[in-house]
Backbone:
């Protein structure tokens, strides 16, 4: 019974790690461009603590969807926003999302 519990625990641990590491990436051959009707105008910051988060792209059904910039509060006082970017990937491109560092 103890061995069965150990094996089951090991299996669950490996499965959880595999699921966590297997995030699907959408690879596109042509890098999408910002929609032409979108004019990027940075409004006045709501407070001195707010940081501008530039455009982001999210995968949706085998393509990427554009999301305009916005003001955000850092999660802690010394957090820095690292902007998202496009990366070459196997004959195409993937979006690397922005994040707080």
Residues:
């Amino acid at each position: 019974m103890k061995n069965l519990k150990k094996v089951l625990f090991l299996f669950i641990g490996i499965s959880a790690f595999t699921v966590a590491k297997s995030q699907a990436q959408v690879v596109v051959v042509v890098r999408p461009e910002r929609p032409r009707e979108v004019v990027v105008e940075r409004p006045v910051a709501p407070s001195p603590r707010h940081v501008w988060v530039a455009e982001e792209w999210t995968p949706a059904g085998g393509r990427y969807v554009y999301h305009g910039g916005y003001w955000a509060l850092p999660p802690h006082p010394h957090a820095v926003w690292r902007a998202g970017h496009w990366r070459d990937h196997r004959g195409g491109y993937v979006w690397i999302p922005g994040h707080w560092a």
